[in-house]
Amino acid sequence: MKYIVMGLGNFGKSLAIRLTELGHEVIGVDNRMDKVEQLKEKITHTVCMDSTDIDAVSALPLKDAHAVIVAIGEDEGASLLTTALLKQLPVKRIIGRIVSDLQRTVLEAMNIDEYIMPEEESAARLAMRLDNLDIVDSFKVSERYSIIETKVPAKYVGLTLKEANLTNKYRVIVLTTIKSTEEEEDGKTKINKEATGIAQSDTVLAEGDILVLFGELKDITQLIQKGE
């Protein structure tokens, strides 16, 4: 079988080597030449490229691959953008790596339902949540843009996304909403979260829902503050 592994950090490197040892054809992709050079004798093929460049990724034998594994862990933005790009291309199976609950939510919104186990929460995300109690989780996509998970502001409860008009008012994009439910398990209350899919203009914002927003942090903060 043929596999493409995007990201040759510790996890991606180990995965690519193991798959090769098991007799599979493996193409390892990374944007750092030093990582590519380290593996060129250990896996079937190695390619140095930017996995967020659609032209470069399109040149890979995606149709022949049984699965593409996005193993990028240290750069959450690149991981998310790579996965979104792959969704636009002829890929049979995409397996995403998750390092936060928020990444899981976004991948679910993109209908990616196969995951590599998440890692511990980063200090940056924890600091962001402690700094603003209305922010549930967050990560930076680039120096300017972030994806923020926040409670639906009281001002917008009961409105559709079209009525709330958040994109025009605050220059943010609503990626999806999350429904939270509680259930008792072994005497403890367990909170289950489920993304409702890609947000539509007729999506109704209910009390207790969580918004997943994409935009500049200052604009998202303004939305939260003015929506109270």
TrEMBL record:
Residues 1-117 form the RCK N-terminal domain. GO terms for molecular function: monoatomic cation transmembrane transporter activity. GO terms for biological process: potassium ion transport. InterPro entries: NAD(P)-bd_dom_sf (IPR036291), RCK_C (IPR006037), RCK_C_sf (IPR036721), RCK_N (IPR003148), Trk_Ktr_HKT_K-transport (IPR050721). Residues 134-228 form the RCK C-terminal domain. Gene3D superfamilies: NAD(P)-binding Rossmann-like Domain, Regulator of K+ conductance, C-terminal domain. This is Trk system potassium uptake protein TrkA.
